[in-house]
Amino acid sequence: MIAGGEPGRQAGLRARQIDIGHADLGKSKFHGPGAQLREQLFFTIDVLPSTQDHPPILETRHVIWADEAACAATARSLAQCAAVREAVIELRGPLGAGKTTFVRHLLHALGVTGRVKSPTYAVLEAYELPESPRAGPIWHFDFYRFNDPQEWEDAGFRDIYAGAGLKIAEWPEKAEGLLPAPDLRIEIDFQSGDAAPGDDADDANGGARAARFIACTARGRELLP
Ligand SMILES: Nc1ncnc2c1ncn2[C@@H]1O[C@H](COP(=O)(O)OP(=O)(O)OP(=O)(O)O)[C@@H](O)[C@H]1O
Ligand SMILES: [Mg+2]
Predict the structure, then answer these.
(1) Does pTM top 0.85 for this prediction?
(2) How far apart are CA 48 and CA 142, in angstroms?
(3) Distance between CA 142 and CA 91 in Å, rounded?
(4) How confident is the model at residue 135 (pLDDT cuts 50, 70, 90)?
């Protein structure tokens, strides 16, 4: 159990540790005395909210990006919001959907110069914006290869999330139960009928994407396109 974590986060961890998985709540899986009590206990744990699994949804916006230029335009308008500097943002979507591409455009619009590398292998790429009015750190995570929860503590990720700056994470589902609930969740997917990069179908239709922006906090609402 993580000490001092927010209640929802702790609840998520408890549920995972006990591995209730897909408990069939309608039928008893236990036999003998106390079975009913145990079933009740499992049910109680199952309904505890996890902010990571089910962050509150305040507002949702759908955007279609016909091409990468449209993705860049949305990223630029997000960079104009002052609230982005302290935001927790997560990006979901299949491989090659455009998560890093969106971050790349966002960071460049915020003033990051030079290359914005995908953190797929390093898990974290950090940036410092020296220029006012947007000075401050930016933390770009990719949890795709994150598989050791101990690293959350050892690498200081918990401290980063508790500290200042923009925190933006790809593949947050791979660090489920550890990450705090985001201000903004962005889900990117290939536009219906589209295919993954490299497929002929994708080359033919120019890389259209469907993006869903989900505000989970008041700050997240300020960030909606
Ligand atoms: N509308 C679009 N929006 C974003 N990227 C697009 C778009 N159309 C084409 N692309 C291209 O799709 C690719 C997306 O790759 P990217 O690395 O950003 O994906 P990813 O979601 O980060 O994948 P991974 O899960 O592997 O990290 C890039 O080559 C980008 O140029
Ligand atoms: Mg990526």
Answers:
(1) no
(2) 27
(3) 9
(4) confident
Cis peptide, bond prior to residue 133, ω within 30 of zero: yes
Is a pLDDT exceeding 90 seen at residue 156?
yes
Name the DSSP letter for residue 131. S
Query: Structure tokens of 192?
Result: 């219906």
Q: Give me the mean pLDDT over the 74-99 stretch.
A: 96
CA of 155 to the centre of ligand 2 (A): 20
SS3 52: coil
pLDDT at position 22, please?
32
Residue the block writes with tokens 């919001």: 81
Q: Domains of the chain, with CATH numbers?
A: 7-46 (no CATH), 59-222 (3.40.50.300)
Helix (H, G, I), strand (E, B) or coil at 143: helix
Determine how many CB atoms are found less than 10 A away from the CB of residue 141.
27
Residue with the smallest CA separation from ligand 1 atom 9 is 207
Alpha carbon distance 68, 17 (integer Å): 41
The larger pLDDT score, comparing residue 48 to residue 70, is at 70
- Count CB neighbours of 158 within 10 A: 17
Ligand 1 neighbours, Cβ below 6 Å, are 65, 67-68, 71, 93, 95-101, 118, 120, 142, 170, 197, 207, 209
Q: What is the 196 CA–ligand 1 centroid distance (Å)?
A: 9
